[in-house]
Predict the 3D structure of the following.
Amino acid sequence: MSRFLNDPDNAVTETLEGFLLAHPELERRGTSRVVTSSTPPTGRVAVVTGGGSGHKPAFIGYIGDGMFDAVVCGDVFASPPVGSVLEAIRTVNTGHGVMLLLGNYSGDVMNFEMAADMARDEGIDVEMAVATDDLGAGSNVRPDQRRGVSGQFLIWKTVGAAARQGASLAELKQLALDVNSATRTMGVSLNGCTLPGSTKPTFSLDEGQMEVGVGHHGERGRSTEPLVQMDEIVDRLVDEIDQDLQLREGDRAAVVINGLGGTPMLELYIAYRRVAKVLQEKGVSIEVNFVGEYFTALGMHGFSVTLMRLNDRTLGLLKDPARTPHFTQTSTPN
Amino acid sequence: MSRFLNDPDNAVTETLEGFLLAHPELERRGTSRVVTSSTPPTGRVAVVTGGGSGHKPAFIGYIGDGMFDAVVCGDVFASPPVGSVLEAIRTVNTGHGVMLLLGNYSGDVMNFEMAADMARDEGIDVEMAVATDDLGAGSNVRPDQRRGVSGQFLIWKTVGAAARQGASLAELKQLALDVNSATRTMGVSLNGCTLPGSTKPTFSLDEGQMEVGVGHHGERGRSTEPLVQMDEIVDRLVDEIDQDLQLREGDRAAVVINGLGGTPMLELYIAYRRVAKVLQEKGVSIEVNFVGEYFTALGMHGFSVTLMRLNDRTLGLLKDPARTPHFTQTSTPN
Amino acid sequence: MSWDLKEALLHASKNVQSARDQLCDLDAALGDGDHGTSMARSFAAVERELSSTESNEPADLLELVGNTVLNAVGGAMGPLFGSAFLSSSTALRNADPSLSSPERTAAAIAAAANAIQRRGKASVGDKTMVDAIVPAAEAAATAAGQPDATSATVLRAAAEAAAAGTEHTKELIARIGRASRLGERTLGHQDPGATSITLVLESLAASAGAPVGHPVLTLN
Amino acid sequence: MSWDLKEALLHASKNVQSARDQLCDLDAALGDGDHGTSMARSFAAVERELSSTESNEPADLLELVGNTVLNAVGGAMGPLFGSAFLSSSTALRNADPSLSSPERTAAAIAAAANAIQRRGKASVGDKTMVDAIVPAAEAAATAAGQPDATSATVLRAAAEAAAAGTEHTKELIARIGRASRLGERTLGHQDPGATSITLVLESLAASAGAPVGHPVLTLN
Ligand SMILES: Nc1ncnc2c1ncn2[C@@H]1O[C@H](COP(=O)(O)OP(=O)(O)O)[C@@H](O)[C@H]1O
Ligand SMILES: Nc1ncnc2c1ncn2[C@@H]1O[C@H](COP(=O)(O)OP(=O)(O)O)[C@@H](O)[C@H]1O
Ligand SMILES: [Mg+2]
Ligand SMILES: [Mg+2]
Ligand SMILES: [Mg+2]
Ligand SMILES: [Mg+2]
């Protein structure tokens, strides 16, 4: 597949250059893969995430007030190396410790864990929370083997807000784990994606088929099935999520409909329409929703549905203002 | 091509239903195709736009404080009918008149013009400004025959901000025309797009080719050419724009890099990187930039570059806060 | 008009809906691929409205079709077809009572042609529906002047002229509307709007029972 | 080790870079399609570093490779290959001076296997590079105990065992890492990481001059 690029091997480097030129409120040292806010996290814990590139707006689009203090950027779909993670930790630590948020991928876990160990050896307080919101592989997969997917946006938002409010490192870790265990995601797609420099997509489907249980790396999902109508797809995703999450009448929920990069927003809102109807029938009230592209897989045509059970604290944190290049909210809409 | 839909003929209706469920700060009456802010434009001119659907976040994503008071939604890529435009005008007029912003497409122009005439017959003050920022067909095309494309975002933002500040209808019309004549756009793509209900894309290219001069309806452009590297593409787009716009050393500019729906954000920032370098070499300073999806064509893989010459007033209006479902900014970033 | 105009308009509505995909394909080459959808949806609405109206008065029916098309979908075809039908309705209402039935038919087509030109500001040769409706109106006027003229022969002449005009759009470079941005690349492609005009006129002519001289419209 | 380890590592680096597309294809079937890119970019960095270092001391070279891989790209292969090389370096440095050269080679491979297991927490049978490196370490230990053992025969035995282990991954269902989410769909596909391990061991064995018993690694 064709792409608009220069040398594909420079894609990430050039993206970072463009991003830093476009957003002067961000910083990086030289050609480093660590991007930070130019406002240091004074008097509070710093929040850091990172992972492979190709997921924009994630992760660097969310650096700023109320979300991340730093992001460590890997190559496309590849965890950043230990050294970069360590550099990020050192850069943003102002003596109050560093909270690392990441998704459950061997590469990320290993690189972040090694860097956290090294930072601790240097006397920096570091905690790590690994997101596992994905039910793509089926609910029989052990929770600690699940991927972190677009439900992570809710972790980022809540932890970022709590850090700004002055929560301790231990509290932030607990919050991240709580949000993670209150959150489930399921994704579907019509194709895989083509990495820069590659000519073939990770997979492709025949007309009229869909892949169920995809993540955001163009990986195949659990099964290839006949494409059915949107309402039927949504009913099935919500049903699988709910069998695991067990929302009850009277519960409050947050919903994310995340486009994977090539999905028209029209389709995302048609999906949201159905999610809203199904939850209303269950007596679950949607208190906050995010419909758009939060965590993409290059130009993959697919989307995921995330549901999260809310409590007063997490709802407040989700509605808290934030100001970053690709997510800004002022006070509570409505 | 497969899509995630129910009945394709209901795609727009269901999208609107989803959008209204997701954004309770918006309103519409019954099954109307007119969406308004729930905060009426008291004591000032109302700003209305509209056109075919399939361009999300445009247009309804920008209803709210500092941008639109109402949007009239047509079917996919089809202008809304006269009756809907008239309904929008009547709904938002609070006695201070209505400013209609639209792109230069026969359908939109005819339907909006007829509605404006009818509204004037009812005693409502209505002005209309038709955007023509596209150089896709070449700069030898008469300016009044050019399409309005993603440069319109800059018109929406400035006119919306000025309306909130209390500008008169005549001033708003003049502002829209001034911004339009200070703005040029050029787009390229790797494919067309497939309308809901259709199985074929409007066009498709061989591997290694690109279409130069596309708009945001999957229309073919001026020519099909070999795909070259991003920097070369950007140089050419900026060059063509600048031959017409004639930016000079010391000028201040706004830049929009608009993805057409299936373009990874990574590619958009690689494009921005080059635009920033080229303008810097010309001694033109970029005072404000918008990189992302503002005006899409379903899932088309393509992007456009928009340059606008700024003055103090238009720069201030672009930086003015706004709060809408898909574009929120607080005070000046940086 | 002695033939059943309601039946004829219903027949046209059905034909337009059946041609949806072909009209979209024509529009994909020159524009944004939605012309068939807009036409089909508008004429589905027309079919509904016609089926539920009591009146059989030609001017009423044409006015109903015009208002329906104008408010159904929009697009470029909405105001153009809408104004065309509304103006032909007005032409029938205001027609000199001394005119013969074929002369009234020709006057209605002439009014449609004028309305499309006024509304869209396109001229003959710009590669739009004007290139179908203007020759149709001229042919209708000529046919109405023949001694053995009927509404059917007038409509048949109009349809054949529209078809020829549509065929001729292949040789034109678009100078207005969406397609104009493609310049020389529009050569060889048939204008979708002209095709629709012809399809409607042919359906009316067929319903009016005029003998078909030769097959006229090709949908590609 | 009597052979030129630097040459051997450079040879391995080149082979890894040449296998980029095949490794990506294997990873596309089971994961996210980037394994070849990550390996190629890491070993391009290895090639650069090796070419500019003065030292020819095996432990230094392995440490250099380990640190380079660890900090080049990241991914899953970064910490795994990085730790493997770093641990084999340490194993050589700490080796009992009374050990023979083939015994040291086997000890280095064993250290690599341990490091990969410690770092990734995968077991034999999980369908990862562990399924190549663990049998390789066992075969290396056996080969080092033979009376006519050389580093070359040890490496050859390790490479052949790794290749067999890699081939065997086709019959396994992934139980850890990215591929584990595909469950039974991973059957029939060869693990990319195991393939890379084998490629590196084969390159080292070939450079060490061991006679090739039979062609071992298939990159698909
Ligand atoms: N200004 C105009 N005058 C006459 N006909 C026009 C004009 N603009 C467009 N058309 C006709 O409309 C047709 C396209 O209609 P349609 O696809 O429904 O609208 P849109 O261009 O808005 O997608 C063209 O083929 C042409 O015949
Ligand atoms: N926990 C683990 N232990 C051992 N090997 C692993 C582990 N996780 C992944 N691997 C190996 O890494 C390979 C994938 O590497 P790579 O594609 O570079 O990383 P990523 O999965 O991050 O994209 C797999 O084929 C497997 O052999
Ligand atoms: Mg990867
Ligand atoms: Mg259209
Ligand atoms: Mg069209
Ligand atoms: Mg991989």
